[in-house]
Specification:
By secondary structure, the protein is an alpha+beta fold. The chain contains two helices and six strands. A four-stranded antiparallel beta sheet has the order 2-5-1-6, covered by helices on one side. A hairpin with a 2-residue loop joins β3 and β4. The protein is elongated and about 60 Å long. The N and C termini lie close together (9 Å). 17% of the residues are buried. The model has no long low-confidence stretch (mean pLDDT 91). One of its GO terms (molecular function) is ATP binding.
């Protein structure tokens, strides 16, 4: 099993959700988060006062998939979230040793 994690622009979340559903992914977890990388935040002016915004709003998507499916899911997310601008985000996968569905006690692939 692999946990595919993506950090994307919040405006691209619906695009990613639709693309994953079309690919056959039945579930995902989404978390609102903030951060920065190369774009390093930005400045905004509100009522004449200038503010430095250090962290930019992002959406974190987590999808649990079989090992063989991880690369395809990464490709689907990357294509759906890509705008070509700085700040599009990142996608990575990590190994998962054990999964248990709490309600039924199922383990491994049956729990996904």
């Amino acid at each position: 099993m692999r946990l595919v994690t993506a950090i994307v622009q919040p405006t691209m979340l619906t695009h990613v959700q639709i693309a994953l559903a079309q690919h056959g992914i039945a579930g995902m977890t989404v978390t609102e988060c903030s951060g920065y990388a190369r774009q390093r935040g930005h400045r905004e002016v509100y009522r004449g006062a200038e503010f430095v915004i250090d962290f930019i709003a992002k959406a974190k998507i987590e999808v649990l998939v079989e090992d063989a499916e991880a690369e395809a899911v990464i490709d689907v997310i990357s294509a759906a979230a890509r705008t070509g601008e700085v700040g599009d985000g990142k996608v990575w996968s990590t190994p998962v040793d054990e999964v248990v569905r709490i309600r039924t006690g199922e383990r491994g692939s049956a729990a996904v």
